[in-house]
Hints:
The chain is an alpha+beta fold and 339 residues long. It has 2 domains: 2-86; 103-338, BirA Bifunctional Protein, domain 2 (2-Layer Sandwich). Helices cover 39% and strands 19% of the residues. The chain has helices spanning 2-13, 20-31, 36-44, 49-83, 103-117, 131-134, 168-177, 218-233, 286-291, 308-316, 329-332, and strands spanning 121-122, 128-130, 161-163, 182-191, 203-213, 239-246, 249-258, 275-284, 300-307. It has a 7-stranded mixed sheet with strand order 1-4-5-9-8-7-6, with helices on both faces. A two-stranded antiparallel sheet has the order 2-3. Strand 6 (239-246) and strand 7 form a beta hairpin. The longest helix has 35 residues, at 49-83. It is rod-shaped, with a radius of gyration of 41 Å. 3,4-dihydroxyphenylalanine (DAH) is lined by residues 166, 168, 208, 246, 249, 280-282, 303-305.
Amino acid sequence: MIDKINTLLDEIKDLKAQNADELEQLRLKYLSKKGAVSLLMDDFRQVAAEQKREIGQKLNVLKTAAQDKFNELKESLEDHSDAGCELDLTRTAHPYRVGTRHPLSIVKKEIETIFARLGFSIAEGPEIEDDWHVFGSLNFAEDHPARDMQDTFFVQHSADVLLRTHTSSVQTRVMENTKPPVRIICPGRVYRNEAISYRAHCFFHQVEALYIDKNVSFADLKQVLMFFAKEMFGAETKIRLRPSFFPFTEPSAEMDISCNLCGGKGCPFCKYTGWVEILGCGMVDPNVLENCGIDSTVYSGYALGMGIERITNLKYQVKDLRLFSENDVRFLHQFKAAT
Length: 339
Ligand code: DAH
């Protein structure tokens, strides 16, 4: 009997189970009521009294060894099945990095919100335009350089189908179809045939504002400009208007704001002038009103236009325009919007 026990002990030491079925087979073979260990227990009754102590102890060792082996195999099977399981209930519920709004969208939205508070609504127009809406209606002379191939992208070599070079084209579209008063802003993308560099791109974004009504004056324009500058860049911001020329406004001006980096003291950003240019503006030229079917003896209005990239640069000091269209998330993730 001792030999039988020793043989079984050796057998048990080397037992292996690849899966739950094999493990169950081992349990039946060694540990069940009809298993090898139980059978030996039955045999034990016949053992002579003087051997009972020695064999009894040996049998107990066998029983424990069989049970331990079984537990060990069971545990290793369970460990193994866990390893293939990807479910980790301790992980946070939303491990994904949420995207951020594009800086140009943030600034566009901010401009829209400021003008919305002054009663301006948003108007949009096509990016593929015709000569009339981009140039003709806006009082551009036939030989104006902006109409040149160097500045404008023409579609399919047609002189009349082109990518809009400014959002002023939307002014015309709205004026053609709306009876004054008109109070709109036109945000959108524009295209120009420029070599791409850190300070110029072949596409960029503008917001145009237009107000047409009876008795609109330059003082009204100035008031809106001041409000916009202070809302956008802070209450301490000053503005200055310099005479300028645009075919579609008369008189025309360019607006500077006090440098928002040095507060007007002078720094490399404002080239030590204390001022930075942000937009063009003026009173809508009577020719433009007439071109759009609005009686210029009854109505007057102002218009202004700005580049969204320019405003964004001033707010966030982005030195290279190309960053806006490269979709590098390391750059984009630095911008956070409230909405
Ligand atoms: N359209 C002009 C541009 O693209 C910007 C502009 C200047 C718009 C003066 C205006 C304005 O409405 O009054 O450079």
